[in-house]
UniProtKB/TrEMBL annotation:
Residues 35-208 form the CBM11 domain. It comes from Streptomyces cinereospinus. Residues 351-682 form the Glycoside hydrolase family 3 N-terminal domain. Residues 1-22 form the signal peptide. Belongs to the glycosyl hydrolase 3 family. This is beta-glucosidase. Transmembrane segments: none annotated.
Length: 1005
């Protein structure tokens, strides 16, 4: 999915430049306005920690372009701040005070104001402040907004009382939830997303005089108080002050219940008043108890608002609600079969509530936390990098529990199903166990390790309160120029099929009976269908070249290559399926390319009807926006095509409203809605969310544990593919003196790749783990480390050069979109320098093959290390012979980019290394030539007839090793084609035919 970490830049708002000392207006008793920014050039454009103005955004194209522009109509001075923007995710700018401080005291003022050049476009502009903390990156965010519904210059005045504490994102998780105003670090402006526009702004200043209501506030300990019928809720009212000073005036809170859905028969009405006297310490709490009454009637949940009126301080941002839990209704009876619970609940729901269940929003896009209940949202997600701060398992669980609490205020208290892209471990969480990407798992050829990595991922994900994982990707990658190719297990559908044991690792048994366990999650088969077959140059998304493009195939090829893994996934009971952004062009149907999110033929006809998929279909990130037509058409087309839940990260309000309108207009049949909601509710019941909506954190201590990392380490070792090993250079010996170089030897971010902590991933120390260099050092022996190979090379026995790619995700990583398949110039120099000076092993850490050209001859040992994740020790394990090399190529390794696409089964097939190639160590290679192959063929045939898979695979493996020894590095087209086809036959259980193909390769060598 295209993911952005919505509003998740740690330096979102980080302060202001020093302010002038406030002067008192003569005789007015009110401080004179204090300029914050005149935009005359006195404030530089500068990044933190320096003071100045800087931009930010979710993607590289999201930050606006800013300039100081001279204008005759400038409200103040000669220049204004002007800018242009076209934001797909989020973006804006910050005026920051230097992190070295000091912060500013704004507590003497009423608010902040500035001039805005209106465009009358109806867009809302967010304006935010940073309050308290050690510096701008460690302070609290307080937010408000204004609407651009005017033309020309207008002075926008915002009293500090209008700012509310941000509940969706806080840089440090919050401090005291009080807008103190004594330690202010700056302001920021968030510009509208999804539109192209420009703006101008001038003269930011503080105005007016403050009173205690700006320095003191009353807050409640929660916004929602669920209580069982007959129980009592306790609401805690807390008074807090700027700087924790005692109150200098009394603060009175008047409270009264009433106005909700509960009647007087459901609770004892409560009203009263409490005064916190002058001198009361900040943090003092008063409790209000609201009793409920018990009767014998089965009822939905009912609300009892506690209305608060506050004098002398700011009132809470929300009216707290006591909620009498739903009770006595059949859908709440866990003893009933799931289908009966679903039918009972569905029959009670309104169209609006059903539409809400079909709506999924990005958690950071919630305008108000209460929107979860107000719009009956069925799901929230965290896009890549969309994490709480601090990014810890505890903070994740607390955040998600807070969202689940909001669902308690709805009639039927239907829990959210929260989703994440845990595509190689719980990769959004810093400190989680990061597995090899799928391309490395495919290289293992080990269904058991695929299962184990899925099980560890599920346990870590569920322990943070997340019950749903947008994985695995069942794409069959057919062109390594695709930026998502590393998300695939390989180019052969039989290999992808074999690795689908990961689904059971994630979900448990195929009938869904394990989904309510604290270590299992709902899995997602993606991206349906044929996303791995898109043609180079067919994409129309931005600068992408392959991703989200068009796959043109015959129906036969579609069935055999791209659809086959989904048939297996359905048989394995996968709970959800996600369509692809890409388009499918079936040869012979004369329809041309059809976006998968609009393909009723494939979603309704093939997936749901023919394959009998019983789970629900979830759209990709804002994918319906790519459909032709207006928004109503997008909604209508996608839902009628079979989408059950729509991922509308920012547009959840518009989507829900439009969906309801389309049903009422008769353009979407309500039976289609009922089908979608039934599918969603079924999975929520199976997950046990109605009984346990909150995080079960008993397994949180195992996140990133030694036991989980041991599984990842084993997967890493099995994923290493030894392509060349002249003179038996590998395994290394501890007594050898090593020279280690290359950009990826000591970079945990590079070896983990994209989808690690952030969507695109990043180089550097992004998450705890062991780099390849650290693994080598821990293995023993003397090591010289020189990233650029500038250190003297003399006196070393062996060089190990670790090179490859830097992180990317999705179409951002497409070849032709700023990427290629060549090593960087620095890596090329490192290889050339080290391999010219000593015997050398080159490790390529990448998500796809890298082209070595004429360098291959100078390299003694070559290893495809893929993207191993956080456990570099696993690489060292095979380098030093603690484990044998057993990995095999999951994709064909081309000689040149001109050969792409190149795949097993192609009529013309002449690669550098064929699909399935992989040398071994610590294992004796069979001898005997053709007679031995004949005997192995007979053994393979006998095993096949007897259904003895293990014996059949062993016979084929021995034949493969024998052939590889014969071929050496002289891989010709006559050798490569049957060799690659043999591995496909092996994976489909045709052992005798596989040995026959290997025998043909042997004869051609």
């Amino acid at each position: 999915m295209r993911r952005t970490a919505l509003l998740a830049c740690a330096a979102l708002l980080t302060g202001l430049l020093p302010l002038a000392t406030a002067a008192t207006a003569s005789g007015a008793g009110e401080p004179a306005p204090v300029p914050v920014d005149r935009f005359e050039g006195e404030v530089p454009f500068a990044e933190p920690p320096a003071g100045g103005i800087f931009t930010w955004g979710g993607d590289t194209d999201d930050p606006p372009a800013l300039a100081l522009t001279a204008r005759d109509d400038a409200p103040e001075g000669e220049k204004v701040l002007s800018g242009t923007y076209e934001i797909s995710g989020y973006g804006g700018f910050t005026h920051e005070f230097p992190a070295a401080g000091p912060a500013q005291d704004w507590s003497a003022h009423q608010g902040v104001r500035f001039w805005w050049d209106g465009r009358n476009n109806g867009e809302r502009i967010a304006f935010e402040l940073k309050d308290g903390g050690a510096h701008g990156g460690a302070s609290e965010l307080w937010t408000t907004s204004f609407t651009d519904d005017f033309t020309g210059w207008k002075q926008i005045e915002i009293p500090f009382t209008d700012f509310t504490y941000r509940t969706d994102y806080q840089p440090v998780g919050g401090i005291d939830h009080v807008l103190g105003l004594t330690g202010m670090w700056g302001y920021a402006v968030t510009l509208p997303a999804g539109v192209k526009g420009d703006f101008a702004m001038d003269a930011v200043e503080l105005y007016g005089a403050a009173d205690q209501s700006l320095r003191a506030s009353v807050r409640t300990d929660s916004a929602v108080y669920p209580v069982r019928e007959g129980g009592a809720a306790t609401v805690r009212l807390t008074v807090a002050t700027t700087g924790e000073a005692p109150l200098d005036q009394p603060v009175t809170v008047t409270y009264e219940t009433g106005g909700g859905t509960a009647s007087g028969a459901d609770h004892t009405p409560v009203r009263g008043a409490y005064t916190f006297p002058a001198g009361t310490a900040s943090g003092t709490t008063h409790t209000v108890r609201i009793p409920t009454r018990k009767d014998r009637t089965a009822e939905p949940a009912e609300t009892i608002p506690l209305k608060l009126a506050v004098t002398g301080a700011r009132a809470p941002a929300e009216t707290p609600q006591v909620v009498i839990d739903a009770h006595g209704l059949p859908y709440l009876d866990r003893r009933l079969p799931v289908h009966k619970r679903v039918a009972d609940l569905l029959a009670r729901m309104s169209l609006e509530e059903k539409a809400g269940q079909m709506t999924q929003a990005e958690r950071g896009a919630l305008t108000e936390a209460g929107d979860v209940a107000a719009y009956d949202l069925g799901s929230l997600l965290s896009g890549g990098g969309s994490a709480p701060t601090p990014n810890t398992p505890e903070a994740w669980a607390k955040m998600i529990d807070g969202f689940q609490l909001r669902t308690r205020a709805t009639r039927f208290q239907i829990p959210l199903i929260y989703g994440v892209d845990a595509v190689h471990g719980h990769n959004n969480v810093a400190g989680a166990t990061i597995m090899p990407h799928n391309i490395g798992i495919g290289a293992t050829r080990d269904p058991d390790i695929a299962y184990e990595t899925g099980a560890v991922t599920a346990a870590e994900v569920r322990a943070t309160g997340v019950p749903w994982d947008f994985a695995p990707c069942l794409c069959v990658t057919r062109d390594e120029r695709w930026g998502r190719s590393y998300e695939s297990f390989g180019e052969d559908p039989a290999l992808v099929d074999a690795m689908e044991t990961v689904i059971q690792g994630l979900q448990g048994r195929a009938d869904g009976r394990d989904l309510d366990r604290a270590d299992k999650v709902l899995a997602t088969a993606k991206h349906f269908v044929a996303d791995g077959g898109t043609a180079y140059g067919s994409s129309t998304t931005g600068t992408y070249t392959v991703d989200q493009g068009v796959t043109t195939v015959t129906r036969e090829e579609l069935e055999a290559v791209h659809l086959a893994p989904y048939r297996t996934a359905v048989e394995r009971g996968v709970g959800t399926v996600m369509p692809s952004y890409s388009s499918l062009d079936l040869l012979g149907d004369d329809r041309g390319p059809v976006k998968m999110h609009a393909s009723a033929e494939m979603i309704n006809g093939v997936l749901k009807d023919r394959l009998d998929f019983e789970g629900f279909v979830i759209s990709d990130w804002a994918a319906i926006d790519q459909l032709p037509g207006d928004y109503a058409s997008d909604v209508r087309t996608s839902v009628n095509a079979g989408l059950d839940m729509i991922m509308v990260p920012y547009a959840y309000r518009d989507f829900r409203t439009t969906l309801v309108d389309e049903v009422r207009a008769g353009r979407i049949d309500e039976r289609r809605i009922d089908d979608a909601v039934s599918r969603i509710l079924t999975q929520k019941f199976r997950l046990g969310l109605f009984e346990q909506p909150y995080a079960d954190t008993r397994g949180a201590s195992e996140i990133g544990s030694a036991a989980h990392r041991a599984v990842a380490r084993e997967a890493v070792a099995e994923s290493q593919v030894l392509l060349k090993n002249s003179g038996g250079l590998l395994p290394l010996k501890p007594a050898q003196k090593l020279y280690v170089a290359g950009s990826n030897a000591d970079d945990i971010g590079n070896q983990s790749g994209g989808w690690t902590v952030t969507w695109q991933g990043a180089s550097g120390d992004t998450t705890p783990g062991t780099t390849v260099l650290e693994g080598i050092r821990a293995a023993g022996g003397e090591v010289t480390w020189s990233q650029d190979a500038s250190a003297p090379t003399a006196g070393h026995d062996v060089g190990v050069v670790v090179v490859g790619e830097t992180p990317y995700a999705e179409g951002v990583g497409d070849v032709g979109n700023g990427h290629d398949l060549e090593l960087s110039p620095a890596d090329q120099r490192a290889v050339d320098t080290v391999c010219a000076a000593m015997r050398c092993a080159v490790l390529i850490v990448s998500g796809r093959p890298q082209l070595l050209g004429d360098r291959l001859g100078a390299i003694d040992a070559l290893v495809a290390s893929w993207l191993p994740g956080t456990e570099g020790d696993g690489v060292a394990d095979v380098l030093y012979g603690r484990r044998p090399f057993t990995g095999q190529l999951p994709v064909t390794w081309p000689r040149s980019q001109a050969q792409l696409p190149i795949n097993v089964g192609d009529a013309a097939y002449d690669p550098q290394y064929p699909y399935g190639w992989g040398l071994t160590t610590l294992t004796s290679v069979p001898q005997g030539g053709l007679p031995a192959l004949t005997a192995l063929g007979a053994a393979a045939g006998a095993a096949e007839r007897a259904g003895a898979g293990e014996a059949g695979r062993a016979a084929v493996t021995k034949a493969r090793l024998l052939v590889q020894q014969r071929v050496g590095q002289d891989v010709t087209a006559a050798v490569a084609k049957p060799f690659a086809e043999a591995d496909h036959l092996l994976l489909t259980g045709r052992y005798r035919a596989a040995v026959e193909k290997l025998t043909a390769a042997y004869r051609a060598a």
